[in-house]
Specification:
The complex is a heterodimer of chains A (969) and B (397). Chain A is of the alpha+beta class. Among the domains of chain A are: 61 residues, 434 Repressor (Amino-terminal Domain); 146 residues, Barwin-like endoglucanases; 127 residues, RNA polymerase Rpb1, domain 3 (Enzyme I, Chain A, domain 2, Orthogonal Bundle), CATH 1.10.274.100; 155 residues, Topoisomerase I, Chain A, domain 4 (Orthogonal Bundle); 44 residues, no CATH class. Chain A is built from 33 helices and 31 strands. Chain A has a 6-stranded mixed beta barrel with strand order 9-17-10-16-15-18. In chain A, strands 11-14-12-13 form a 4-stranded antiparallel sheet. In chain A, strands 3-4-5 form a 3-stranded antiparallel sheet. In chain A, α3 packs antiparallel against α4, α11 runs antiparallel to α12 and α20 packs across α25. Chain A is extended. Chain B has 397 residues and is an alpha+beta fold. Chain B has 5 domains: 48 residues, no CATH class; 113 residues, Orthogonal Bundle (PTS-regulatory domain, PRD), CATH 1.10.1790; 67 residues, Alpha-Beta Plaits (2-Layer Sandwich), CATH 3.30.70; 84 residues, no CATH class; 48 residues, DNA polymerase, domain 1, CATH 1.10.150.390. Chain B contains 18 helices and 9 strands. In chain B, strands 6-7-1-8 form a 4-stranded antiparallel sheet. In chain B, β2 and β3 form a beta hairpin. The chains are: A alpha+beta (969), B alpha+beta (397). Chains A and B meet through β1, α14, α30, β29 and α31 of A and α2, α3, α4, α5 and α15 of B. β1 of chain A pairs antiparallel with β9 of chain B.
């Protein structure tokens, strides 16, 4: 065990590295391009030198003596035969070359200017803005100077040929200067012929010299040249591109004084410009580029190793050639090749450079590529990691579980462990786990002895080991009922996508969850998989239980209402139970309530044929808190009245108990407690399941059929619409159609046709609706808000209606028509995707085709949308992730910048206040009424209302009995 | 507190509480309406306070992430290609997810710029007067005023102005000939040609007879704005119900907020536009913040996602305007200007951030969230930000 005390990283500082430092930290110099010898041993001073670290288990590192796993690896180095440019800094090198003097290497700015830029840099640094804007401006200023303000040397322009070649551009005398002069001396429209004597006179050059110049025997000097140029109005120069070798650049940069580079934002304490030209190449440790042994025993090397092999090969050839005195041309070629390999070693996606490829043709993944992007080091390995103690499997529903629970398959429970610290009190328990072994369910997988030694529990040693367990040991026991774990479904779009559940160990192989937690996870059971994480320390378990448990996440911070609640069949069932207020006899009533905590029926609502009966509403009322009072409108349209915990009238449906803001659930969660609301939701769903079993509920194709006379009416309505469309087209063709303001006639026609056909579908829907009985299952579902809408029903029974692509009628396909069965320019409804049949009747082939077109658009839309909104969310989270509410109510980021003085202008939590109704979070009037009328049945209730004492938040499911007794409900 | 007729005892308790001013006043007025004893008042206050404390955001709540999720999550439910402005069918406006992205990106120019121009009282009630404003806003080009024809034989462009249109668009000018004169002057100064104007006919041609120049002139003529604002291609006038009755409201396609505010008859206090940068330039950063909230809320509402709590939108607007200018959410704005190198590198353009950091000798103080996740330290948010510890020696009672 290490004796070091744990340390934490205080800060990270970035800078360039001195080549000397590379040499110092290097474990070895690498000179051989080969990796292993024929016997499979790493070659000394080769790329797999054992001093660079170990990857094979069992071997010892020659540098630090540690074994694979604990040795982090050690850098080596390659002495480059000639300096090469670091591609990442190519732009900065260009800037420095342009801004500094070619002779004295000083920045071409006066002291005053330097001071100014230093000041500007400090200011932008303090403001946290981009330094590059200032440094760019400084270089622009420096570049303007023709001569160096320090040594007076003329400055030349620097040309940069991407990625890493630099030229100095000088104006020199053109090689064909005699010809150019002669040509200029010839007469043209503006001037007469200039004789050599005239030229001599005008320029003041000796006539003999002029002759020599004209014959090409003498190269005119600088001042003679300018004289001739001005007299003859001719340009005698041409550009001379002088290539700057990396070694030249390095020499140049070495002389830049420290105080000058601060002006362009470089910190001389950490980075010197000449270090941007590499003379030594660090070789990453083997642990960073492990080789893989394939099944056939062959070794396959990492991409980085391949690249390093290339570099070393060229490096060797370079040195050999230079020693052999090879011609300059060959040396330069090799130099360029070396530059290419070093460039692609660092970044293999430079534009203009062909990427280095693997033998198979796949581009190599070199240093930059390892860092970049979603699967790169930063996003893939540092911000997000793979974890232990996690499991993933298919989910399936189980209505008998509480919403706080999750069914965990035994396979998972025996794999995920929790650490038990053994002491006198749990010794027997711990021994029992160990003796059960790793395979028996509440067993154990590992034990850690008091001396820190970890032992695996096996079938063979479990009995023996169990006896040895004593206080001070740690036992990694299996998950058991009641353990808290974290459960997650991707995409994790909001915080309710990750919640804590209590474990219930179950047979079979799927995670089981109560259907009411589907909305927050956005889960269904068509093959969805979910992830589970077992928590590994007490702090995490406590936080998960208090903050992350499903019941604590009941209210969504997005809209401030409940996101848990009855869904689908539950809603249908509560509707059936309360809408017509049916009667139940004692057996039936007890059956409905059998899965709840209610074991005694209330007073019967009345008697029928000498038999006591209970109504659906009074049975439902049993689930409500005793003193609940509420009044609201249900989605079925009637008014729901609840007084003293009794449902007096109204239908309980989506708006009452549904997920996404069911009134009753929302009120209980806010006014009572999350625990009470959890009990309520659980009971509503169990009663609902019994109810729907009592009534029976199914839907089939015949439920959407309408009588023949209704069909005729629908056909008439559509026929009418066709007629009106025909009239519109007629008017359009006559030129009588008046355009809407700001629209062309064509657009107006389209809009009017769309409108007419829309109305046609609606009226078909209305006709169909009139012929549906109120006990039609589809109607019940639509009305109660359980599933589906009247529109769905219209399309099934009446008419599917107009299909649209991009918000318009279908207008694509052939030239001037949608399909070849129509005449060109046919504007009629059927030619542009109006589907007059219903889904039940079935679609005609062309209708089906148009329908598929509309459907395709929907699919494309979803695909595009998910990626766009995913990116939007990532950006939002990244921008806002640092904001936190403080004790003083302000919202600040982690560097304490105030963003809001009071969250949301009033400091109210978005969880507590619903965004849809305008009621204030605190209603003083209501409080006063409550206090003055003293409607408290007990003291506990009163003290709860006054906010004395706090609700326990970390109660397990199993403490419900106790909790209910406490709350006096 | 003399305005309330109260026992001083009650006043003492109320003032002693931690309620904000608004709630204290509400407690006073509630108590005033009823006959209460000091004990009852105390109970009311206690209950109010407890509910108030319950409704507050928890300290150390990561409100930023919650807000980001609350806006991002409904993004998956929004449609991609929606146009059509609710209410004004005549003007197409980008809606849905693209519009939300546009707002959060703080684009310099929205895809479909538009303005809602409210009018001052006298103009708002009178259709004629309202139209006067319309013609001062909508760009009037030559094709809307009359017919343009080219006479190749004489090498001239002939414009025949329509008298009715002139009267309509220049309602304040009595004589259409005067307008024609004005138009011809504009043409002269814009195109640099001599014009001959006779009645409602205007004629001009290139200096030297050239077929190309002639066509060129016609092209340029079409671009001249004779009246109104160049950016605004169309104005729709609509009658809308208000509390005080009906008024005319103008909706414009294209926007030039600054100019419109100065036009006579425009009610600058109610006129808005959907370009947050224009609002920022003309009305300042606080107005821009309001505009961001308003526009995002409208976008969500239009998609039927009106249940998103406005507090989340406020936080987004506040972080976007925190620097005093509008910053976008993303690489070029807030995420790109973070102090931490690691946080920036982990977001986008990883490599160049690292290289720059090396050159500038940057130091990452590891204060933010992302950095600490990367180095494996607890983040300073939520339970990670609590410094309170229970002493091992002291017993809880």
């Amino acid at each position: 065990m290490s004796t070091q005390s744990p340390k934490s990283i205080g800060q990270l500082s970035f800078g360039l590295m001195n080549p000397e430092e590379y040499r110092e930290m290097s474990a070895t110099k690498i000179i051989t391009a080969d990796t292993y010898d024929d016997d499979g041993f790493p070659i000394d001073m080769g790329l797999m030198d054992p001093r660079l670290g170990v990857i094979d288990p069992g071997l010892e590192c020659k540098t630090c003596g540690k074994h694979s796993g604990s040795c982090n690896g050690h850098f080596g180095h390659i002495e480059l035969a000639a300096p090469v440019i670091h591609v990442g800094f190519a732009k900065l090198i260009r800037r420095l070359l342009r801004g500094t003097c070619r002779e004295c290497s000083r920045l071409c700015l006066t002291e005053d200017q330097k001071e100014e830029f230093r000041g500007r840099l400090d200011r932008t640094r303090a403001l946290g803005q981009d330094l590059n804007d200032v440094t760019k401006a400084a270089i622009r200023q420096a570049r303007k100077k023709d001569r160096c303000p320090h040594c007076g040397e003329t400055q030349y322009d620097i040309q940069h040929e991407k990625p890493t070649t630099y030229y100095e551009v000088q104006q020199v005398l053109a090689s064909d200067y005699p010809g150019r002069i002669a040509a200029a001396m010839e007469p043209d429209e503006n001037s007469d012929r200039t004789s050599p004597t005239d030229l001599a006179d005008k320029t003041g050059i000796d006539p003999g010299r002029i002759q020599e110049i004209l014959s090409g025997d003498f190269r005119p000097r600088q001042d003679d040249r300018t004289a001739i140029e001005s007299v003859l109005d001719v340009d005698l120069t041409e550009e001379d591109m002088n290539k700057l070798m990396p070694s030249d650049i390095r020499d140049w940069f070495e002389d830049i004084p420290n105080e000058d580079i601060t002006v362009i934002g470089i910190d001389p304490d950490k980075s010197r410009p000449e270090w941007m030209v590499l003379t030594v190449l660090p070789v990453p440790p083997v642990t960073a580029r492990p080789s893989i042994t394939l099944d056939n025993g062959q070794r396959s090397e990492d991409d980085l190793t391949h690249k390093l092999v290339d570099i070393i090969r060229i490096n060797q050839r370079f040195m050999e050639n230079r020693e052999a005195g090879a011609p300059q041309l060959i040396i330069e070629d090799l130099w360029e090749l070396l530059q290419y390999h070093v460039t692609t070693f660092m970044d293999n996606e430079i534009s203009g450079t062909p990427p280095a490829r693997h033998r198979s043709g796949r581009p190599l993944k070199t240093l930059s590529q390892r860092l970049k992007g979603k699967e790169g080091r930063f996003r893939g390995s540092l911000s997000g990691k793979r974890v232990n103690f996690s499991a993933r499997t298919v989910i399936s529903p189980d209505p008998t579980l509480s919403l706080n629970e999750v069914g965990v398959p035994e396979r998972v429970a025996t794999e995920m462990t929790q650490t038990m610290n053994v002491n006198e009190r749990n010794l027997d328990e711990a021994r029992r786990y160990v003796s059960n072994g790793p395979a028996g369910h509440p067993g154990a997988n590992y034990v850690t002895r008091a001396d820190g030694r970890r032992l695996k529990v096996t079938e063979k040693n479990c009995e023996e080991l169990a006896e040895k367990v004593e206080p001070g040991w740690e036992v990694s026991r299996h998950l058991i009922d009641g353990d808290i774990i974290i459960f997650n479904r991707q995409p994790s779009l909001h915080r309710m996508s990750i919640m804590a559940h209590e474990v219930v160990v179950m047979p079979y192989k799927t995670f089981r969850l109560n259907t009411v937690v589907c909305p927050p996870y956005n889960a269904d059971f068509d093959g969805d998989e979910m992830n589970m994480h077992a928590l590994q320390n007490e702090e995490a378990r406590a936080e998960a239980r208090v903050l992350m448990r499903v019941q604590e996440q009941m209210l969504s911070p997005r809209f401030g209402e409940n996101i848990l609640g009855a869904i689908q069949d539950h809603v249908t069932a509560t509707y059936l139970l309360t809408n017509q207020n049916p009667r139940f006899n004692e057996t039936q009533s007890l059956d409905l309530l059998r899965a709840t905590r209610i074991d005694e029926l209330p007073e019967p609502d009345g008697r029928e044929d000498e038999e006591a009966y209970w109504t659906g509403r009074s049975l439902f009322s049993e689930l409500l808190p005793d003193d609940l009072a509420l009044e609201f409108t249900s989605s079925a349209g009637d008014t729901v009245v609840i007084e003293d915990g009794q449902l007096l009238e109204g239908t309980i449906d989506e708006d009452a108990v549904g997920a996404f803001g069911g009134e009753i659930v929302d009120t209980i969660a806010k006014m009572y407690s999350r625990t009470r609301a959890r009990i309520f939701i659980n009971e509503v769903s169990s009663v609902a399941v019994r109810t729907i079993m009592h009534f029976g509920f199914s839907i089939g194709i015949d439920d959407e059929s309408i009588p023949a006379e209704a069909d005729t009416q629908v056909d008439e309505a559509i026929e009418n619409a066709y007629e009106r469309v025909g009239e519109l087209i007629g008017a359009y063709e006559q030129g009588d159609l008046e355009s809407l303001p700001g629209r062309t006639v064509d657009e107006t026609l389209e809009m009017k046709i769309m409108q007419t056909l829309g109305q046609a579908r609606d009226s078909a829907g209305d006709i169909a609706e009139d012929h549906f009985a109120s006990d039609n299952p589809a109607v019940i579902m639509a009305e109660s808000g359980a599933r589906g809408s009247m529109l769905n029903l219209t399309q099934m029974a009446g008419c599917v209606g107009q299909q649209a692509v991009r918000g318009e009628r279908i207008n694509r396909g052939y030239e001037n028509r949608t399909l070849s069965h129509f005449k060109e320019h046919d504007l009629s409804a059927e030619a542009h995707g109006f589907v007059e049949h219903s889904y039940r009747e079935g679609l005609e082939p062309r209708e089906f085709f148009f329908h598929a077109m509309g459907g395709r658009e929907g699919l494309v839309d979803t695909a595009v949308r998910t990626s766009k909104s995913g990116y939007l969310q990532r950006r939002l989270i990244n921008a806002l992730s640092e904001l936190e509410a403080q004790y003083d109510g302000t919202v600040r980021d982690t560097s304490d910048t105030i963003v809001q003085f009071e969250f949301g202008e009033d400091g109210t939590s978005p969880v507590e206040v619903s965004s849809s109704d305008d009621e204030p979070a605190v209603d003083v009037e209501a409080i006063a009424d409550q206090v003055l009328e003293s409607e408290f049945e007990s003291d506990t209730e009163k003290s709860r209302f006054l906010g004395e004492g706090t609700e326990p938040t970390n109660l397990s499911e199993h403490a419900d009995e106790w909790w209910l007794a406490q709350s006096g409900d | 507190m003399t305005e309330y007729d109260l026992h001083t005892d009650i006043e003492v308790i109320v003032e002693d509480s931690e309620l904000p001013r608004r709630l204290k006043d509400e407690v006073y007025s509630t108590i005033e309406d009823r006959d209460v004893t000091v004990e009852e008042a105390d109970e009311i206050l206690q209950a109010t306070e407890s509910q108030y404390v319950d409704s507050r955001v928890d300290p150390l709540d990561p409100v930023g992430t919650v807000s980001a999720q609350s806006i991002g999550e409904p993004g998956t439910q929004m449609t991609m290609n929606t146009f059509h402005y609710a209410g004004v069918a005549e003007i197409d406006v980008t809606q849905g997810l693209p519009r939300l992205i546009e707002l959060v990106d703080a684009r310099k120019e929205p895809d479909t710029p538009m303005m809602t121009v409210h009018l001052e009282e006298e103009y708002a009630e009178d259709r004629e007067k309202a139209h006067e404003v319309v013609w001062n806003i909508e760009a009037t080009k030559i094709l809307q005023l009359g017919d343009v024809s080219t006479n190749v034989a004489d090498m001239v462009v002939q414009v025949a102005l329509n008298e009715d249109t002139l009267r309509e668009r220049w309602p304040t000018v009595e004589d259409p000939i005067a307008v024609a004169e004005e138009i011809s002057e504009t043409i002269e100064s814009e195109l640099g040609v001599e014009t001959a104007q006779r009645g409602l006919a205007i004629q001009f041609g290139p200096e030297e007879p050239s077929y190309r120049d002639l066509l060129q002139l016609v092209e340029e003529l079409r671009e001249i704005v004779f009246k109104g604002i160049e950016e605004i291609t169309r104005v729709v006038i609509r009658k809308e119900e208000t509390e005080k009755g009906e008024e005319f409201v103008l909706y414009t396609e294209g926007s030039d907020f600054g100019t419109v505010l100065d036009i006579e008859g425009v009610d600058a206090s109610r006129t808005t536009c959907n370009n947050i940068h224009e609002i920022y330039r003309n009305l300042g950063v606080e107005a821009a913040r309001e505009a961001i909230i308003e526009e995002t809320m409208n976008t969500l509402e239009e998609q039927g996602l009106d249940d998103v709590n406005i507090r989340h939108l406020m936080l987004v607007a506040d972080i976007m305007t925190n620097e005093g200018t509008i910053e976008s959410i993303g690489r070029h704005g807030i995420s790109g200007s973070k102090d931490s190198v690691l946080a920036r590198a982990a977001f986008e353009v990883t490599v160049s951030h690292l290289l720059d950091a090396a050159i500038h000798g940057e130091v990452d103080e590891l204060e933010g969230v992302t950095e600490n996740v990367i180095v494996g330290k607890p983040i300073k948010l939520g339970t990670g930000d609590v410094n309170l510890r229970m002493s091992a020696n002291e017993q809880a009672d």
